[in-house]
From TrEMBL:
SMART domains to which the protein is assigned, alphabetical: RAB, RAS
SUPFAM superfamilies reported for this sequence: P-loop containing nucleoside triphosphate hydrolases
Keyword line: GTP-binding, Hydrolase, Nucleotide-binding
Family indicated by similarity: Belongs to the small GTPase superfamily. Ras family.
Superkingdom of source: Eukaryota
InterPro entries named among the record's database cross-references: P-loop_NTPase, Ras-related_GTPase, Small_GTPase
Name this polypeptide is given: small monomeric GTPase
EC nos: 3.6.5.2
Length: 176
């Protein structure tokens, strides 16, 4: 059920570490990676900046949906990672696993793309059971937690280095 006032937002609940975590999620169509942005901060870029992680879904029966993933990952990484080089959690999901007889994209192709783009990979059937979707969001939540922890650790080390550098810089100017 969509919340009122925000027609493009839906809420996802997933079980994490024995408790519940609320994960707001957006669903939208990307502009082509080759299309230039009409202005510096498009709605798409604002959504990318807002998000902590991404789930990109393609149909295993649709080669075009699979082929659109690489540019989407590149757009996300360009907007999100930037000069800070922080790693953004992205999960690539092949859906419609139950339609293996109509498969146009192999599992191996999905795995290779995910590995080459430094993303997680899952192949699920949303039609058969919800367990696959739970695994996807649980995996994404774990990657987001790891990324936030790494960022905190990095900031802690940076602040220590800055403090130590400031102390030595002060001593150097005091002794001159």
């Amino acid at each position: 059920m969509l919340p009122r006032g925000r027609p493009d937002v839906f809420d996802v609940f997933t079980i994490l570490a024995g408790g519940f975590s609320h994960v707001p999620a957006w669903s939208w169509t990307f502009r082509s990676a080759t299309q230039p942005s009409s202005h510096k901060s498009s709605p798409e870029e604002k959504r990318i900046q807002w998000a902590d992680g991404f789930v990109l879904v393609y149909s295993i029966c649709d080669r075009a949906s699979f082929n659109s993933l690489r540019p989407k990952v590149q757009v996300i990484k360009a907007a999100k990672e930037g000069p800070s080089q922080e790693k953004v959690p992205i999960v690539i999901v092949g859906n419609k696993r139950d339609l293996h007889h109509r498969r146009a994209v192999s599992s191996e192709e999905g795995r290779l793309l995910a590995r080459s783009m430094d993303c997680e990979f899952y192949e699920v059937s949303a039609a058969e059971a919800y367990h696959g979707a739970v695994m996807v969001f649980h995996g994404l939540a774990e990657r987001i937690s790891e990324a936030k922890l790494a960022l905190k650790k990095g900031n802690g080390i940076r602040s220590i280095v800055k403090s130590v550098s400031a102390v030595f810089a002060r001593k150097r100017t005091d002794s001159m």
